[in-house]
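Attaching the record inline, Q. Sequence:
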Amino acid sequence: MSKVETDLDQTSQNSSEQAAERERQPLSRSLFVGLGVSALVLGVIIYAGVHERAVAASNLGTVTERAAITTVNVVEPKSGAALEEIVLPGNTQAFSDTPIYARTNGYLKRWYVDIGAHVKQGELLAEIETPEIDQQLEQARADLKTAEANEQLAQITATRWQNLLKTDSVSKQETDQAVNDLSAKQATVESMTANVHRLEQLQSFEKIYAPFSGVVTARNTDVGALINAGAGGMPQELFHMAAVNRLRVYVAVPEVDSEAAQNGAKATLTLDEYPGESFQGTIVRNSDAIDLNSRTLNVEVDIDNRDGRIRPGAYVFVHMKIPEKSKNATASHTIPANTLLFRSEGLRVGVVRGDHAELVPITIGRDYGSTVEVISGLKPTDQVIVNPPDSLTTGTPVRVNAPKAGGSR
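Structure, as predicted:
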């Protein structure tokens, strides 16, 4: 090979090496840039993970601190009594309720009314056959006629002897005997007359009349039944009547509310069978003594029932107004019953003071069931805790729950 060819080959080889070197230099830079970007992304990911954990740990601490503070709902006391009446159960009774018995013995001849019949006073209810009484009356009348005849003869004899005594035709002894015999005959007539009247009264009891206007609630006999007026056995009730135009209700009023039982005061009655309706009654009397066993006052409420809508024996609710006391009307407040805490040292309620709770002693007046009247211990601006936990003590950190939109706390 010549020198020229050798130089050309050397030149060509150098050119190829330079071209390869130029190709390797961009690849090295790309690889370096890629590694740098990868390291940067990895650093960002590691930083983000660490930051997220730090934030989560911080949030967990905040949530834990918040969870350690009790969240409560509060209510403000309402001034004055929330309810000015008491509602007590009672049973209606007929103003007059009586059984009707026979006053004479015999057999039932006919009855004219049955249960549910409304009758007037003096209306005939039934008739009884009394053949024995009828015969005894006839005999008594006959005995009376005999006695009257004997009396008339004794009257004539006594008058005659008194006239003969004036002429000394008879002795004074004989005259006195005739006069005394007249007196005896007159007493016999009076006795016979009284016996006739007695039997006439018994005979009048053959007809049974209504003693008052009312309704027949029971009929315990039928035609042909033997009627026993009590002679030699227990009498049998024939009818039972009740006067329902006016009803009376007996109510046991608790001693603490006995001031509501003022004679002449109005009372309202409600019944489950007439929802939305009320009936007006009047307190007419009370026992004026507290029952030692139940600590209640027995009160009678009368109600007009001429329309007959209320039946005797119906279960009713009696609403009585409680007289207001001017002293308590301004000082008392009303709170829900679920705010009360019963502790060994007495009745308490939890009140929010800033960021902690405070147990405040209170004194209650009337108990209305879902609410109670507080007569001392609270102010109208106090925030009373509703449904306080049993573990609540004075100084416990609390946070008031935010009220819902349009609602109360």
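Confidence is low (pLDDT under 50) at residues 326-330. The helical segments are 3-67, 131-166, 172-204, 326-331.

More tomorrow.
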